[in-house]
Task: structure prediction
Amino acid sequence: MHDNLIPVIVSRKWQIAESYHAVELQPTHKSALPPFDDGSRVTLRLNSAGGKERIYPLLPFPSLSGGYVVGTRQGGDGRTNGLLSDFPLNERDEVFAGIPKSPPTIVDERVRSILFSGGLGAAPIAGIAKRLASAGQRFELHNFAQSADRAVLREELHALRSHGEVYHYFGLSDDLFAQKSSHAMGPTHANTQIYCSGPPAFMDCIERQASEWVYAANIHKIVLGEHTA
Result:
């Protein structure tokens, strides 16, 4: 291990939704991978000395090898979309895994919690919802996808309905998405906690809308994807 990085190898992958796959990462030297909380993310690096990095959500699926299972978006041929040359993540690929990072979760029964997810952002948002549910705190969760077939962790989100309100939206235009997300937030108190994870434009829209209602410190963006070391 170098700089808190652990060498891992892609041991298997399988589809979890249309255009999305789960990828199992197994430590190459039988090292014990650090534990993680619900909703955590892990940074993968191609080279231990530095270079290209990407942040992946850890999925709530058991690993057969004691490793991690991360979510990826895939192209139509089943390979990593847009990353074929700079960050492949196919079977037998070797990469380096960092220490998982837990998402911020404010547990306070006096405040309202509104969660927004899009694409792979459903993974960290589902984890935050589980943590709130474990603390006995209710929440509202709004999940957006291009279609029902492309909704990541749809069943896992559905299972949370006994602890909070869960809404799914499929195939919305940009304008209609903005209307739905705005309606979900307003009016709300300045102490409301807003969580969002998804594509950059998705989170930027949520942040702009939320800033009209809540304190900036109460807007929590869980970023996934490319990161330069």
Confidence is low (pLDDT under 50) at residues 76-85.
